[in-house]
Structure formats: structure tokens, C-alpha cells
Specification:
Rossmann fold; 44% helix; 6 helices; Barstar (Barnase inhibitor); 19% strand; 123 residues; single chain; Barstar; alpha/beta; Barstar-like_sf
Amino acid sequence: MHLLPADQLEPVTAWLLERGYAVASAVTPLEGGLRASQAEIARALRLPATAAGNLDAMVDSLRDLPDIWGTSQVALLWQDAERLAVAEGRSWWLLAEILDDADDLTVVAFGEARLGRPKDELR
């Protein structure tokens, strides 16, 4: 997983597309925790409905990304990833670890560039 400031979204997207990646985009929901974020990522990656609410199903479904997308070069651009990290740090690490372990997935998590930003400013 690559962690980058939010202002790098456009250049990273262009770089991935130029290299033939299939690009999926997910945004951490404003009011969501682990399950809402998981559902958004599952939607973005075109995973089966079971992957939206079951972590084991998500792990299993991630193995099928080349079949789902027709390529082994799939990238997930996860915007506002810091929102989940700040609200539920343990949930962020769990979901990030699952995504990072997927063999055919490149994950780029985008967050706020400024360190020390108060939690309530992230909403």
C-alpha cells in the first residue's frame, strides 16, 4: 500500500492509466466506519455483495480480481483514507492489511497532507 497526500490523486491516476492499470476509486464515507468503508471498497472493486459486509468473503473475492477486471493490473485509489484511520484506527489497519495482501491489487491510500489536523476537521 502506498500512502500519499490527497493532492497527488490526479498525477497518480494518470500514471496508472498510462501504464495500463484498471483503476477503481473509493471514498471513505463521511459517517461510515469499517463496514461502510468495506462496502464502498467492495463496490469500487466490483466484488460480490458478500464482500461488502464479510471480511472473509472480501479476502476470497480479492483473489478473483484478474477475472473480474480482465487484467492482473488493478489499482484501488482510496480517497479520504485518513477519515477511517482517525475515527477507527484498528479498523483501518485491518482493512488496509487485507487490501495490501491481495496479490493482484495495487492500493494507493490518499489522505490529508498536513499532520496534526484535528479529528473534527476531517469530516
